[in-house]
Amino acid sequence: MAQRMLTHRTRPDSLRRTLGYAMIAAGALLSLLIVVLLILSTRSQPLAPPKVGAPLGDFTLQNLNGENVSLKNYAGKTVLINIWASWCGPCRAEMPYLEEYYSAHRDQGFTILALNAGESRDTAAAYIEEIGATFPVVLDPRKEVVSQLGVNNYPTSILIGADGVVKAVRIGLLTPELLERTVTPHLSR
Questions:
Q1: Is the pTM of this model over 0.85?
Q2: 53 within 8 A of 165, measured Cβ to Cβ
Q3: Residue 26 backbone dihedrals phi, psi, to 5 degrees
Q4: C-alpha distances out from residue 8 to 11, 15, 41, Å
Q5: Beta-carbon neighbour count of residue 30 at 10 Å?
């Protein structure tokens, strides 16, 4: 009978130990799952052609000073991504309008991110200096981002609200009237 009690006693201890290890393993697995989900949720969305009403994925390009600039750097701001080239007549025509609008509204949580498509740093910088633009400029010399965005015509502008959602996509020249009508309603007052 003493032997039976000993066997009976060791089984619950063994079962408790096994359950304890299983709970530790389940806790570790749950912790790992939470970490993976957090990492995946903080990763940027892949870049794809813009859709009004949806967020635009992130991208990183170099500015005229060779520094990396990401779209996510402008989170919480209204951003007008303007895709341009110095050889493009309509792009050249709208740049003074963009500079004027930027200067008037940058204190309202607004910025322009001028994305040069396919030109060298020297070419883009020379043109920006020539017109006296003060808004941020990034370079896409191999047009990789431009291609991912599905842009084939210049200028193309993508308006992103402070909430990170695409508000408008415009192919062609932005006039002062179009800037006022399209962008101003999305600015902080």
A1: no
A2: yes
A3: -65, -40
A4: 6, 11, 49
A5: 10
